[in-house]
Amino acid sequence: MLGSLRYRLPALFLLGVVLAGLVSTLIAIRFFQSYTRSHAIDELRAESVGIVQLYARQAAAANVPLANLERAIGGDQIFFIPIVPELSLFVGALPTLPLDTLPRATLEQQVTTTLDLTVGKRHYLAVARQLKLGDRLAGALVVAKPSSQLRSRLVTLIERLAIAFAGGVIVVGLLGVYLSRRITKPLLSLSSAADAVAGGNYGVEVPQLRGSDEIAHLSARFGDMAGKLAESEQLSRNFLMTVSHELRTPLTAILGHVSALREGVIDDPHAREASLGVIGEEALRLERLVGDVLDLAKLDAHRFTVLREEVDLEQLSDRAYTAFAETARRRAIDYRLDLGARPVIVTDGDRVLQIISNLLSNAFRWTPEGGRITLSLSADADWVSFVVADSGPGISLEEQARIFRPFFSRDGSGTGLGLAIARELATALGGRIELQTEPGLGSRFTLLLPAAKA
Known about the structure:
Oligomer: single chain
Order of helices and strands: HEHEEEHHHEHHEEHEEHHEE
Shape: rod-shaped
Strand content: 15-25%
Structural class: alpha+beta
CATH class of the largest domain: Alpha Beta
CATH topology of the largest domain: Beta-Lactamase
Number of helices: 10
Number of domains: 3
Distance between the termini: 69 Å
Strand order of the largest sheet: 6-8-9-11-10
Largest sheet: 5 strands, mixed
CATH architecture of the largest domain: 2-Layer Sandwich
Helix content: 40-55%
């Protein structure tokens, strides 16, 4: 349970905030220490200037020791570093520091010097300033601030930072838990839906999330995937039912005629010839059906071989047109062939004929009796175009994106392989199929092939 995203997200979020808070606290403490020290030194320097001036002025005026001057600066301490012993009386009872605390050479070169002092067991931050009586350097007055005062300020800061840090961790922890639940709840729903889909339940309800973030996008795409899987499964079922029917019908006819011939029911030579003709036609029908399935399997597995040969597209158009001429005559369809060009290109002629035949078969299937179908051929410098136009019912916008999918049939009959194979073959030949249609106004399928000449 602890390894789940639901717990790891807030834990990692909280850990990141804690680390960031600790680093920020350390930086703040370091900055505060530097600022406090600099500020204290500035205060001590300012105090030392006034004290030295006061000592020098009053000593010169009255030659009176100023032993109690230290009271004028509150809790700070004043020390004296003597250089000329006979001038020490002017500082009265001020505590003295040894001369090596601040060497004379340093004192003579610098007006003020910052020191870290230890007097007894107490530690001070101090500023030493030259004390001159007249033109003579008497020594140095040292104004010192106990280090404990600086530490007390730091302790106060740390306590306040600790309180703020603890409050921040609590707030961040609650926010992390809230965000974690908000993120993981839809993910758990998607996970349950994925388990259902993996078990074969493609109709599972996928949570619909608002917004445009990644999880909402994932949910929407997962819903689309589940819908397409459900559609694919339904198409597969329809295909199996259709193929079973398509196989059973010619097989039943073949078995019936074979049985009649074997049992001698048909004695007349003309009847026997007609029966054999039916067997041949039904066998060809079976061959076409099996060939379509094999072609689709080869195209899906990318094991399809394309031949390269010179193809006279005028002759190929005549062959495709003639194959459906009798059907057009029987159904009173206005069937025309329009040759706007007679190109010869390098391609696979049998596969081009198969594509055009599939497009014509689809047109004859949906064109009513007395309708119109046209096969046109044209060419330019780059492309050769075959156009199959019909006066059928047209195709709706929703179905336009589905008619090229394997096993899809608009009326539930047929294998739904013709257009799918045609498109895959066109792609394998380096071309494409374009569709122009409008409900009620017919359809226009255009096969475009590269005009690669011999």
